[in-house]
Specification:
Elements lengths: L1 H16 L20 E2 L5 E2 L1 H4 L5 E5 L5 H5 L1 H13 L3 E6 L11 H11 L4 E4 L4 H6 L3 E2 L1 E5 L5 E5 L15 H11 L13 E2 L6
Parallel strand pairs: 3-4, 4-5
Antiparallel strand pairs: 1-2, 3-7, 6-9, 7-8
Length: 202
């Protein structure tokens, strides 16, 4: 019995070791990960600091094959292009480290980005360090920071992740508009619906 208890405790501690930090709350500064170098599909190394503009930064955790990512492909391109038009930096990060030798390899990411017509950074979040620091759990999942690096919106692109035809409110687009106006974000959080991030413990 004692051996079983010890084994159970070891498994529990091991699982906890791979749990992400508590999710970043609205009004929090960006965690100390802005200078971490990441491999982008362009072949260059990028950091969140480099990608941040004077108007802020939109970070989206995503991947190649999650059904919810696929359902949101058109909306993803639309909102990221919109963010760029508003001179907000864009970083799409792939944290699926457990799938790095499979569908979320660097080569697969590069192929996916080309097929999707990405003209923004799509980089490897190695060992899901940034996802862990943000407390991200899903793909897709969005974090919008203002010019001072303060989180102003966290959640989904809109209120109908599984059905584009049923969208009644574009949460992220509205948050970007309000950010640009210097107004308070009317809906600062929403529920991210998608595939779980494939962490190394999964």
């Amino acid at each position: 019995m004692k051996k079983m208890m010890i084994a159970f405790a070891a498994v529990a501690l091991s699982a906890l070791a791979f749990m992400p930090a508590q999710v970043l709350t609205i009004g929090s500064p960006m965690p100390d990960v802005a200078n971490i170098s990441m491999q982008d599909v362009s072949g260059k190394q990028v950091t969140l600091k480099q990608l941040t503009t004077g108007n802020g930064l939109l970070v989206m955790f995503s991947c190649n094959t999650c059904p919810y990512v696929i359902k949101n492909q058109a909306r993803t391109k639309e909102i990221l292009s919109y963010a760029q038009q508003q001179q907000i930096g864009v970083a799409v990060l792939n944290p699926n480290e457990a799938y790095r030798s499979k569908d979320d390899s660097f080569e697969a990411m590069a192929t996916y980005a080309k097929a999707q017509g990405y003209n923004w950074a799509y980089a490897i979040d190695k060992n899901h360090v940034i996802a862990d620091a943000f407390g991200a759990t899903r793909t897709p999942e969005c974090f919008l920071f203002d010019s001072k690096g303060i989180l102003v919106y966290h959640g989904a692109i809109d209120d109908s992740p599984s059905d584009a035809d049923a969208v009644s409110r574009k949460h992220l687009e509205t948050a970007i508009q309000e950010l640009k106006k210097g107004a308070a974000i009317s809906v600062p959080t929403s529920k991210s619906i998608g595939c779980s991030i494939k962490r190394l413990s999964n």
